[in-house]
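Reminder to self: tokens first, then the designed residues, so the page reads top to bottom the way the pipeline ran.
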């Protein structure tokens, strides 16, 4: 019979997209029992290996564009994080390889000069097996620290950030490998192991996607994270915003609707586009969302399962901020602000009976949704001291906030206050849109 700890873990692993409610039940890792912490640590770490498992060693070293990192690379800096921030300064710690401090530093200038991101694909060594050995050594050392009760409250907070960091990389592993495989003319399928990992084929019935508007009154509202459960620093402090009355769509824009935009000449008419967006469309020859192809009048989409006919009633995915904004203008509406999105999502949660998750629809389980909000600091935001202060704050320039979560988001990593962010031209993530007016 499974213990309560194992039962909880099993639930986390088997439920690929828990609703917001599940996050309120998150165990506090700072005060968790050691055996729970060990199990949770390994469960998160092993998920990365399960994502990598269907790939050949050759698959794991390709970098198909500067934004994409090779899978083998993803497996290393997540490990580097635990070694650098929890192991390195402890008596008796012997690094697996002294060169890894430079090689797998993603962007922490406080730690040292990072290896250039766009050159990660040039690293044929260390090989995959060596990175796996690195992971094993660090995992064993972390497990020992937990079991010996050697992690104080601050260390446990760092461990918690490290696990959330690993989950962020898990989503990137899936989106990056999708891009890598899409560049191969054979269009190979990722072949997920069939346990909810990496399935980006969503095919709802037309009746499941009835369009409606949720109307919300004007008022002074609270947004941002406060209280129980993990959150990243950029989700706080909780603060008030004044919202004018607004309406927000009950669901995301679908592929079928986006085809109407294309057929209406959406990509050829500059009046729908921001100036930078129009330049981007022209210079990059953009005619459809990423991964779409058209043969004999029918659209197909490259997925983690290979090339598939486009599911017309699925939410449109792999669109940039520019495309999302142009679609919204063409449709006579606009993108929501992140405060509107969060307020509406929280409001909807309150309205739904505890047992009825259906009205929450595809708010946070299918595609990240572009908002019109630039990614900036909340009032009163302060970066942490030291290297971990580099985690979020320094990226608050030239990016837009996305809300929700996607088919690739790891279990337990979705929150109503979660702020994802990407530059406006990025579209290799699972990114779509929801309209507002
Ligand atoms: Fe990272």
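Designed residues (437 positions):
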């Amino acid at each position: 019979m499974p213990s309560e700890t194992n039962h909880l873990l099993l639930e986390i692993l088997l439920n690929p997209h828990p609703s917001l409610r599940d996050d309120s039940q998150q165990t506090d890792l700072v005060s968790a029992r050691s055996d729970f912490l060990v199990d949770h640590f390994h469960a998160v770490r092993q998920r990365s290996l399960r994502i990598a498992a269907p790939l050949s060693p050759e698959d794991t070293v390709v970098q198909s564009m500067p934004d994409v990192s090779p899978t083998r690379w993803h497996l290393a800096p997540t490990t580097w994080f635990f070694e650098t921030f929890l192991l390195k300064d402890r008596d008796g710690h012997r690094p697996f390889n002294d060169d890894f401090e430079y090689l797998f530093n993603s962007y922490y200038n406080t730690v040292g000069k990072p290896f250039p991101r766009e050159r990660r694909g040039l690293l044929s060594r260390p090989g995959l097996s060596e990175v796996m050995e690195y992971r094993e050594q660090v995992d064993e050392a972390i497990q020992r620290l937990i079991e010996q009760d050697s992690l104080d409250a601050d260390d446990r907070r760092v461990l918690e950030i490290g696990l959330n960091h690993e989950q962020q990389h898990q989503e990137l592993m899936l989106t990056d490998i999708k891009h890598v495989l899409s560049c191969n003319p054979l269009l190979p399928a990722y072949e997920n192991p069939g346990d909810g990992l990496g399935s980006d084929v969503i095919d709802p019935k037309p009746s499941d996607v009835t369009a409606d508007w949720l109307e919300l009154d004007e008022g002074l509202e609270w947004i941002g994270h406060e209280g129980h459960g993990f959150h990243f620093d950029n989700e706080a402090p909780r603060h008030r915003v004044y919202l004018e009355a607004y309406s927000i769509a009950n669901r995301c824009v679908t592929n079928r609707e986006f085809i109407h935009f294309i057929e209406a000449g959406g990509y050829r008419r500059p009046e729908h586009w921001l100036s930078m967006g129009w330049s981007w469309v022209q210079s990059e020859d953009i005619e459809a969302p990423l991964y779409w192809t058209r043969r004999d009048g029918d659209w197909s989409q490259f997925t983690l399962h290979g090339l598939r006919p486009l599911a017309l009633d699925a939410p449109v995915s792999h669109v940039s901020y520019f495309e999302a904004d142009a679609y919204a203008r063409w449709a006579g509406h606009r993108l929501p602000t992140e405060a509107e999105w969060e307020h509406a999502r929280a409001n909807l949660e309150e309205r739904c009976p505890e047992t009825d998750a259906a009205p929450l629809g595809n708010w946070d389980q299918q595609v990240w949704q572009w908002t019109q909000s630039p990614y900036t600091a909340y009032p009163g935001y302060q970066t942490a001291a030291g290297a971990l202060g580099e985690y979020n704050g320094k990226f608050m320039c030239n990016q837009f906030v996305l809300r929700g979560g996607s088919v690739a988001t790891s279990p337990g990593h979705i929150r109503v206050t979660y702020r994802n962010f990407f530059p406006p031209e990025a579209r290799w993530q699972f990114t779509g849109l929801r309209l507002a007016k």
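The radius of gyration is 22 Å.
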